[in-house]
Amino acid sequence: MNKIEKLDNTRIDAVEFDIPSGEIAQQGFRLSPVHFVLFALALFCLLFIVFISFSKSIEVSAITRDLNDSDRYLSQSADIAIGTKFKLPLGNRVLIFPGSHAVSVQADGFTSIEQVIEVDSQRHQQFELELVRLPGKLAINLAAQSSAEVFVDGELVGTLPQGSGDLANVIDNIPAGKRQITVDAPLYRSASQSILVRGKGETQSLDFDLQAAWSEYSLSSLPPGANVSVDGVVVGKTPLVAKIEEGTRNLLIKLDKFKPFNQEVGVVAGQNLVVPEVALIPADGIVQVASKPSGAAVIINNEYRGTTPLKLNVSPDIKQRIQVYKAGFQLSELTESVAPEQELVRDIVLKTDIIPVQVSVSPSDAVVYVDGQRRGQGSQTLSLNTLPHSISVRKPGYVTQTNDIIPTRLSKQIVSVNLLTEEQHYWAQVPASYSTRDGHQMKLFRQLGDVSLGSSRREDGRRANETVYKATLTKPFYVALHETTNKQFRAFKSIHNSGNYKEKSLDAQKAPVSNVSWQQAARYCNWLSGQEGLDPFYQVTKGYVSGDNKDANGYRLLTEVEWAWLARNTDDGVLTYPWGKSKTIPGNKRVGNFADQKAADILAFTVEGYDDGYKGPSPVGRFPANHRGLFDMGGNVSEWVNDWYSSKGSSELSADARRDPLGPDQGEFHVVRGGSWAKGYLPQLRLAYREFAAKGKHDIGFRVARYAGLNKKK
Question: CA 653, CA 223: separation in Å to the nearest integer?
Fold first, then answer.
């Protein structure tokens, strides 16, 4: 056999080996107690190694707040138990697996703690658990007060005494720490003390000597036996002496069937007072009034108190005159007397107040309606209540009239209604005269008719263009009493100047405007219509009057037929001159502004022996009005009229066309009518005299007119 050398190189020699004869004895392996011990020891070591590897070192300690400084914490000895089996205490620390673990902390005088801590993966961890001191007790000793409220830091914690015996003045459950203790007893001034409550169930003692804060008030009433309350607390019946705490107090003395006596009193401690006897006043009675229908006025002793349903107080044992009234119903009246605190209920059924109303109606077959309900035809007597009513009278072709009335017994009720036709009603609303914004005084002419135009061949001074014919006026119209003045025209055209004639000024404010063309006069009429809110009569194209609107109600120039009717036609025929038919102006009368002797140095023709007082144009309206009430129709300035000029006027028109004619449809010139301050040749002063022009002149002006009644269909 080979030799085996040890590491230390020592040689081991081989020996001979003999094979035994027979069978070889077999020996078995047995586990002995030693084996188990060794196995257990090995397992323990393994588990210990695992525990040591995975456990964390924690320290759990108890702390509590310092009584003198609540922001400071102190260490507190306590019994601390960690509720887990796998832990290993090592001095102040414990080895424990991570996770949630229940901890119990107990110490004498502190509330026990049962809390779960969370151990995380950090190697070393520390937990501080705060112990709270158990509340303390206070034994509060008062001098002579029987009861008091105890406040800790401003909060009520109890009332003394609490029961009887040694614990009657003990207040428990007071949190440990610095506390402000206040004691407030009725009739005494409150007092406060600071104390350091040690807690842990310990009883500490405080002494309070409260100062009295009351006065004695001697109270009496007539009658006696009234309840006396101070700030809502009953203190007894009169007469009595009551202790009342200082301050402003509400004193109430109350007795059945009498009005309560209520007064604020200022109580000063130690200043006793005898209050003068209080004479109680009997309580009011109560009146409750209802009515059918409701909403009626209630008047008690001539004083309005409201509307039904109504509940109010009245003086007791006095007769009360109660009146209940509602429009349309009769006044209900009763007299009652009510005892103190007695409640009187009255339900009043009002009766309808009916008044006879006499209605006089014309025409006799017109229908009468009351509040929209038909009551029959013609005059009649209606039975109406004293409420507002609307009485309407209607008939086809007439304008309905409505009267609002309130029937009354103070006078006889009569309603007279005279229906007007639509035409009559319309004209009743149209004024007979009015003034425009710039001062034109307008007069209405309704009763018109036939108009004579032209002149007889036998009339001195007759001209060929004075053809005799008849026309008819049917449309009522307004016309200005005066010719348009310079002032009025300058409101339309501020730069206008009527100029001078041979150094005689024509431009005075109140003088008639002159040196205006027909176009300017027509455009002024349209401007005036705009100022008055009327429809313009003249149609204007590119600044030029190109036509007219016969249905417009705006201002315009007089037509030639209208001018002739206003200036010349009378009920007895026609006038030759503005002053009559004589060629001579009667007497020394000033009948108009014509070319008189004063104007002889500037005019070729003057009226011999006539002096009108003016060398040129006069202010409008200075001479007597004519038979139509118009001024200066025969003098001052001649007037543009609406018509285009034709030598035969409107005579060539058909009979229908001569009803309210506006003149020929076209022409080169416009008609000018009437004498002027510059005309002294007698034939020119005739009212039949006609001339024409295309441009303005020193003695041509105009007056405004407009149709009335054109809006009837509208």
Answer: 113
